[in-house]
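Page 37, continued from 36.
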């Protein structure tokens, strides 16, 4: 099942939905916040695996096939894709390079990398935190790591929009995301010690 959270004013992502195979269940979820939307969509899903995609994501041509192979090889992993940006020039290439290095070497992918996980494993990890002010995706990854769930990077690139960076400024948005991520890392580490 594919779960796509929608912001209050966000349109139905027709291009993304049309790129998915017809046999996949697609659930659009529009709740008070992103974590609530993700969890509400997961609760309605009937599939054995939950694939969380952002509405502005674009799939690579072989993305579905590579995800299926990854699930067959590592059924109990948290799968995610490499990240790319559809626009934004060299700055966004730098951001995608940094995101992919962070994912591979620090073991911390972000939600816009298309998490896919077995339904029961998602429940066992406690689902997305609805009380966190931000970073529900990071917290799910930390829960997975704490539970010794392997992270599996799929060798395909999921492309997303750079709209937020263009609207809020590239440097400001990049620094803010980095700061919030580091702040959350310190908080999680502090709670675990």
């Amino acid at each position: 099942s594919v779960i796509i959270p929608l912001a209050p004013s966000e349109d139905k992502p027709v291009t993304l939905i049309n790129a998915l195979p017809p046999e996949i269940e697609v659930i659009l979820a529009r709740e008070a916040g992103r974590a609530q939307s993700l969890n509400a969509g997961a609760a309605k899903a009937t599939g054995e695996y939950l694939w969380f995609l952002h509405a502005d994501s674009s799939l690579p041509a072989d993305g579905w096939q590579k995800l299926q192979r990854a699930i067959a090889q590592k059924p109990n992993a948290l799968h995610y894709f490499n990240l790319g940006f559809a626009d934004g020039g060299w700055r966004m290439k730098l951001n995608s390079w940094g995101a992919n290095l962070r994912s591979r070497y620090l073991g911390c992918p972000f939600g816009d990398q298309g998490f896919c996980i077995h339904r029961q494993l998602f429940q066992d990890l406690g689902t997305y935190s609805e009380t966190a002010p931000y970073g529900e995706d990071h917290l799910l990854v930390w829960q997975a790591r704490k539970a010794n769930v392997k992270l599996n990077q799929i060798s395909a690139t999921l492309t997303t929009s750079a709209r937020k960076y263009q609207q809020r400024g590239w440097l400001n948005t990049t620094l803010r995301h980095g700061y919030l991520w580091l702040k959350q890392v310190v908080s999680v580490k502090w709670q675990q010690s």
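The longest helix spans residues 170-192. Flag for discussion at group meeting. The radius of gyration is 16 Å.
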